[in-house]
Structure formats: C-alpha cells, structure tokens
Design a protein that fits this description.
This protein is of the alpha+beta class. It has one domain (about 5-180): Pyruvoyl-Dependent Histidine Decarboxylase, subunit B (Pyruvoyl-Dependent Histidine Decarboxylase, Chain B, 3-Layer(bba) Sandwich). The protein has four helices and nine strands, in the order E-H-E-E-E-H-E-E-E-H-H-E-E. It has helices at about 20-30, 50-55, 110-130, 140-145; strands at about 5-15, 35-40, 40-45, 50, 65-75, 80-90, 95-105, 150-160, 170-180. The strands form two sheets. It has a five-stranded mixed β-sheet with strand order 2-5-9-1-4. It has a four-stranded antiparallel β-sheet with strand order 3-7-6-8. Strand 6 and strand 7 form a beta hairpin. The termini are close together.
Length: about 180
C-alpha cells in the first residue's frame, strides 16, 4: 500500500488514568475510531496533503490506518509538554519527502514545531546531497535549503499543553494520517 494522500491532526486529553488521557487526545484529534499503525518517516512521492475533514470522510471506523505519530504524557503538575511532526517536501513528484517526530518537555509550540520541521528538512537535505552546517540556526538552514531549489516546502503540526495542576494525566499527540 502506497499512500496517495495525507492529513495533519493533533489533540490533547486530560484524565485520571494515563490510557484514558491518551484516548481523549485521540478523540480531540478525531482519530480514535481507527486502528492506528505507526510507520517510519517517509512521505511517498506525489502524496498530496488534504484537509483533516476531507481525510476523515475518506476513512471508516475500525479501519487499519497508517500514521506517523508523536505523543507525550505526564502527570507532573503544570509541566509543559509537547508532541510535533515535522514535514519536508522535495521538488518534483518523483522524490520522497520526510516526516519526523519530536517529543518535548518545556518547549513552546513554536520551538517544538520548528525542531521537528528542522529535523525533517535536515534528513531530507542529507539524502539529497545538500551541504549544510548542522550548527547553523534553523532559520538560516531553512533559507539555504529553499534557495538550493531541492526542498520546496517545510511545515509541522504541533500540540503542546500545560499539564493538569492537580496531577491528572495530560496527553498530547500530533500525527500525519495516511490515506490509500
């Protein structure tokens, strides 16, 4: 099976039990009704991004669905947690792209998302033979990647949350859902 479409989604859940908080995060992301199978980080050539609503309408409850998922959870009161999936797309429809998962504590949504996006772009750049300095700031490398003409688009989906102040489990997830 080679996916032809994908969509981004994210969610957060809070509950007394760790598993229940994850279930609530899946519900918030509107993907609790599927049997999710995590796969590695390749975006097939020509795979097109669609809206979450359109993607959900193409799937059936109970369906086995492949995804890239970042998730994180804690019951430590007030702890900032995050989950992000970065995305890097090369030029042309014949090349594959990269997706990367990032799980964080203490990072803002912007910082966690940028990190995941940077990771995906760096992995793609290395496979395309693009020379870059890994110590340069992400904004500098992003500009170099785009100016090089081989990476045309990067993005991310990120969910952060401040953990429940009373010690209930808080779960966050960010995912890319594949459609056949």
């Amino acid at each position: 099976m080679i996916p032809s479409k994908f969509f981004f989604t994210k969610g957060v859940g809070i509950a007394k039990e760790k598993l229940s908080s994850f279930e609530l995060a899946l519900r918030d992301a509107d993907i609790e009704q599927y049997n999710l199978v995590s796969v590695s980080s390749i975006l097939p050539p020509g795979c097109k991004k669609i809206s979450r609503d359109k993607g959900i309408s193409m799937l059936k409850p109970g369906e086995i669905v492949f995804c890239i998922m970042a998730r994180n959870e804690t019951n430590e009161p007030n702890r900032l947690l995050g989950a992000a999936v970065g995305f890097a797309l090369p030029t042309g429809d014949k090349n594959y792209g990269y997706l990367s998962e990032h799980h964080s504590f203490g990072e803002t949504e912007g910082k966690a998302g940028d990190y995941a996006e940077d990771l995906a772009a760096s992995m793609l750049a290395s496979t395309l033979g693009i020379k870059f300095n890994p110590d340069d700031a992400w904004d500098t490398r992003k500009q170099a990647f785009r100016l090089g003409g081989k990476i045309v688009y990067t993005s991310n989906v990120t969910q952060t949350a401040k953990a429940n102040k009373n010690g209930l489990w808080t779960s966050v997830l960010a995912a890319v859902i594949f459609i056949p």
